[in-house]
Amino acid sequence: MPQSSLRNTLLTALTALVFGFLGAAIWSYAGLADNRTRSFLLDNPDMLPQMVEAYEAQEAEKRLAAMGDEVFAPFPGVVLGNPQGSKVLVEFTDYNCPYCEASLKDVNRLVAEDPDLKVVVREWPIFEGSDEASRMALAAGLQGKYRAFHDAMFRLGDVRAAASAAGLDMARAEADAASDAVTAEIANNLELARALGFTGTPAWIAGRKPIGGAVGYDKLKAALDESTPG
Hints:
Strands 1-3-2-4-5 form a 5-stranded mixed beta sheet. Residues 16-30 have low confidence and may be disordered. By secondary structure, the chain is α+β, with helices and mostly antiparallel strands. It starts with a helix and ends with a helix. The chain has 2 domains: 3-67, no CATH class; 71-226, 3-Layer(aba) Sandwich (Glutaredoxin), CATH 3.40.30. The protein has helices at 3-29, 32-43, 47-67, 98-113, 131-142, 146-156, 159-166, 170-177, 180-196, 217-226; strands at residues 79-81, 87-93, 117-123, 203-206, 209-212.
């Protein structure tokens, strides 16, 4: 279900819930306090979307807690920033996603500003034609050239051109891209994204906070800072 449809469904359900309680209260208390409640809700309609957002965040955090640490374990070499960093940002991405491309500057800024940041990238090819690029990206990781391919792919938009720009050993890369290990990684990323309730790219885990969408530098940094002790 698209994220907008999910939000609309939840909003409808919450509205029904709120006014269901209101109706029950009216039955019980003859309407005085409940008319005030109804007036307050009608005067503050922004509360309902806020309730939906809070509910979604709470449920996503519960799902993440139940998953353990698997989502934080990168495919070999598929890391940006400091591979040994203690502060972790996970990104689910697709090379044909314009919002992922737009978010690249935010990730690069976060990495440049924080030498302790590790960005675990989960290749999630959900757009048509993205599978080849994701496979080659994982193959680049196995050659220690993920960052070079990752940036070149967003810049050039062509798999072979990006592989050449990254300096990949093409014979090895093509074999790795078709390997069972790469196939399993892409399938696993799909399952992880579904388990977290993500509906599209980009999607993030900043510290221990799941976040959907191209939310920008400030929100990602705030979530990372919030997760850091002290």
